[in-house]
């Protein structure tokens, strides 16, 4: 397989909605998924959307380490044409946390996200997948699905004073992230 180049903020592929996958079993889709998994392994991130590797399709690969998700690991997953719905009360139950992104290396920001979401998608085999996610798992899904809609996390920041380079924020006041934010 191959390690793909990651698009950075400002590239047009990140600014537009991705196209639906019409045939999950197509050889080019299978190759894309395998290359995305290799790329994500190489990057050390937890999630990657196809637009981040210059492919405008609705495909996400991710995993959730137990240490980041209240002890509950989520093994490697592929999502094709995912759709999310919040399980909490609209904007009332949003929770802010530090996020980073492979397309914005070295930057981090405090992003409000729903605490719980319902997921509907196709898996890597083209089979329907439904799940509910909470905590960090829900955050990863929302972050990656935003990429499929042409949204980068800085677009969700309510307070730009909580956005900047990880190193600079750690050197600043108590609002800084306690550890470097892991890229997604």
TrEMBL record:
The keyword Iron applies. Keywords: Hydrolase, Iron, Metal-binding, Protein biosynthesis. Its EC number is 3.5.1.88. It catalyses: N-terminal N-formyl-L-methionyl-[peptide] + H2O = N-terminal L-methionyl-[peptide] + formate. Coiled coil: none annotated. Fe cation binds at residues 101, 143, 147. One of its GO terms (biological process) is translation. Its cofactor is Fe(2+). GO terms for molecular function: metal ion binding; peptide deformylase activity. It comes from the Bacteria. Binds 1 Fe(2+) ion. InterPro entries: Peptide_deformylase, Peptide_deformylase_sf. The keyword Iron applies. The active site is at residue 144. Removes the formyl group from the N-terminal Met of newly synthesized proteins. Requires at least a dipeptide for an efficient rate of reaction. N-terminal L-methionine is a prerequisite for activity but the enzyme has broad specificity at other positions. Belongs to the polypeptide deformylase family. This is Peptide deformylase. It comes from Roseospira goensis. The lineage of its organism: Bacteria, Pseudomonadati, Pseudomonadota, Alphaproteobacteria, Rhodospirillales.
């Amino acid at each position: 397989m191959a390690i793909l180049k990651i698009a950075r903020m400002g590239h047009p592929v990140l600014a537009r909605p991705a196209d639906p996958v019409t045939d999950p079993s197509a050889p080019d889709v299978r190759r894309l998924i395998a290359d995305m998994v290799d790329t994500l392994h190489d990057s050390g991130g937890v999630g990657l959307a196809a637009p981040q590797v210059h492919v405008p399709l609705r495909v996400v690969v991710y995993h959730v380490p137990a240490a980041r998700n209240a002890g509950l690991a989520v093994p490697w997953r592929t999502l094709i044409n995912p759709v999310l719905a919040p399980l909490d009360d609209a904007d009332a139950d949003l929770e802010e946390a530090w996020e980073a992104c492979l397309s914005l290396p070295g930057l981090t920001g405090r992003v409000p996200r729903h605490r719980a979401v319902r997921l509907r998608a196709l898996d890597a085999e083209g089979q329907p997948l439904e799940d509910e996610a909470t905590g960090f798992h829900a955050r990863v899904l929302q972050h990656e699905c935003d990429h499929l809609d042409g949204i980068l996390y800085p677009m969700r920041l309510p307070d730009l004073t909580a956005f900047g380079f990880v190193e600079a924020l750690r050197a600043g006041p108590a609002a800084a992230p306690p550890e470097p934010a892991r890229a997604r």
